[in-house]
Design brief:
single chain, alpha+beta, Trna Endonuclease, Chain: A, domain 1, 5-stranded mixed sheet, about 30% helix
Length: about 120
């Protein structure tokens, strides 16, 4: 991953984190990694429900929207990482996997931030 792409991804995660906090989510973890399976960008809680959040940031949509970049393999990894977190933390309540899509215009303006609850289901 190039340095510019990493910066863009980190910026999108920061934006999503602040957006979720404004919506009443409590952030429990950032960049939670499970073994060699993968990582999930944010772990949050709201109204007694655990919410795993995958943040996808794109500059323009020439290669598709941020949401479209989540392949079935990526969905499988997100589910595995979420299940690992639930077991590791002995979470007994409900949980879900959301997506926050951040799309910048080619000029760098922020045209949209979209939060999609329960975007990934296992």
């Amino acid at each position: 991953m190039t340095r510019a792409r990493k910066r863009l991804g980190d910026w999108g995660e920061d934006l999503a984190l602040h957006y979720l906090q404004e919506q009443g989510y409590e952030i429990r973890a950032r960049n939670y990694r499970y073994s060699h399976v993968g990582e999930i960008d944010l772990v949050a809680e709201r109204d007694g429900q655990l919410v795993f959040v995958e943040v996808r940031t794109r500059r323009g949509n020439a290669y598709g929207t941020p949401e479209e970049s989540i392949t079935s393999d990526k969905q499988d990894r997100l589910i595995a990482v979420a299940q690992a977190y639930v077991q590791e933390h002995n979470w007994q309540g409900d949980w879900r996997i959301d997506v926050v899509a951040v799309e910048l215009s080619p000029g760098g303006r922020l045209p949209r931030v979209t939060h999609i609850p329960s975007a990934v289901e296992g």
